[in-house]
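Quick one: examine this chain and its backbone structure tokens and tell me how the chain folds. Here goes:
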Amino acid sequence: MSSINLELGFSSIFTFVPNIFIDQYMPHAPHAYSLIYFYLLRNGYDENFKLETKKISEKFQILESDIISAFKFWHERQIIDFSDKNGQINIKLLEIKPLENNLIAIDEVKKENNIINQSSFSNNPVIELTLLENSSKVGIKPDYDAEEIEYSLQKSKDIRELLKSVETKFGRLLRPTEIYTIYGFTDWLRMPTDLAYFLISYCYEKGKKSLSYMETVAITWFENNIHTLEEAEIFVQYNNFYTKVLKQFGIAGRVAADFERNYIDIWLKEYQMPEQLILIACKRAFEATSRGNYIFSYANKIIKSWYEANVKTLQDLEKYDEAYQKSKKKKPAAYQKKSKLNNFDSTEIDYDELERLERNYIFENDMKGLL
């Protein structure tokens, strides 16, 4: 808790909100930050009024760290003069300049999507944070203290139940730092408690029991706009399938790279190829070549050919393979001239060997185009 020394930098006999603030600054600020400024204005004329961040927090149900963020926000825009020395906060309300004459504020407005601290405002029934509603950028992680956490736990039954469920999952009591991290999922990253528990359980059951690891996953989900339990379940299902594909290629012990995920996403979303057929194609590609990253390109050729032939089921694939085998038997005899593709006696043609050489020849030339 910090006490605040508030000084009014201009004279007036009544409380008022400058039109410049309403017209030019409010549209670019979170509602809660404007509310804090109004409250400063209201009490700036009372020399005997003692402000404390804890009292403001209790009055408006806002975390003290968010109140400090509001002070810094208006300080950066030259609306107030703010300093914090050893817990003693000094604020001076300044005369507001028109925005066109305030070059610092203009610059801050341009950067606003990168500097606003993500907080519990969006979960508050009274106060809304609307600027970053659809943003996938993670703000600065708040530095919570014990008083804030205790106050929030008193107010939120859902968070209390979340922590109890996690302790049951872990089979032990949570350490204070772990409580702060889990609380950050719901506050900083704005996760519903059911989503937070799903994430923790998902990581724990994979053998990843570190809260720092779980926090990294939580940030990844936030950046991928995963904000509901349903979205998370779909995301996890996709991740599990990425792992299955890598396994078909003999790859284990790592997550799929971006270009690998892009291929798989095309197969699933654009081609709408069933997972079972994708895995079969990947296995065939792996058996045909083991050329590292090029395996995905080879598998893509197989799956694309199936897509163009409208292969959607195992029965379709069987018919496709039968037609392919029949077409092989109807191939004309190979040229008599010896070459890389025809280095054998034409009277004893091995069509399987010929196809293998032809496939490798086409593959090598395709790879040259990619390099």
About this structure: Residues 104 and 331 are 76 Å apart (CA to CA). Confidence is low (pLDDT under 50) at residues 110-135, 344-349, 366-371. Residues 229-248 form the longest helix (20 residues).
